[in-house]
Amino acid sequence: MAAQQITIDQLDKDQIKSFSDFLLSYNKLSELCFIDCVSEFTGRTVSDKEDKCALNCMEKFLKMNQRISQRFQEFQMLANENAIAAAQKLGGGK
Fold first, then answer.
1. Where, by residue number, does the polypeptide cross the bilayer (predicted)?
2. Domain-by-domain residue ranges, the chain?
3. What is d(CA 62, CA 45) in angstroms, rounded to the nearest whole number?
4. Per-residue pLDDT of the chain (94 residues; tens, 9 = 90+)
5. pTM value surpassing 0.85
6. Fold assignment, 12-90
7. What is the DSSP code string of the chain?
């Protein structure tokens, strides 16, 4: 029962951390695109130019994050393969 509660608590912490990371990323995206794209504060509406800029900014940001994630996964897989090969060398040398 105690082990099950620890697992549930860890899942809750992981979910909170994941949501927190998402919010940080979303806030960063919003800040960057707002700074880059919004230039007119005299009207109540968003101009077509600002709207297009914000959409392009968002697409680039998301594509960049996706590419970074892919590269990180590739790096992790390579590091894991190297660790397994090194462990096999050490194990096979005895």
1. none
2. 12-90
3. 25
4. 666 666 778 778 888 988 899 999 899 999 999 999 998 899 899 999 999 999 999 999 999 989 999 999 999 999 999 999 888 888 865 5
5. no
6. Helix Hairpins (1.10.287)
7. -HHHHHHHHHHHHHHHHHHHHHHHHHHHHHHHHHHHH----SSSS--HHHHHHHHHHHHHHHHHHHHHHHHHHHHHHHHHHHHHHHHHHHHHT-
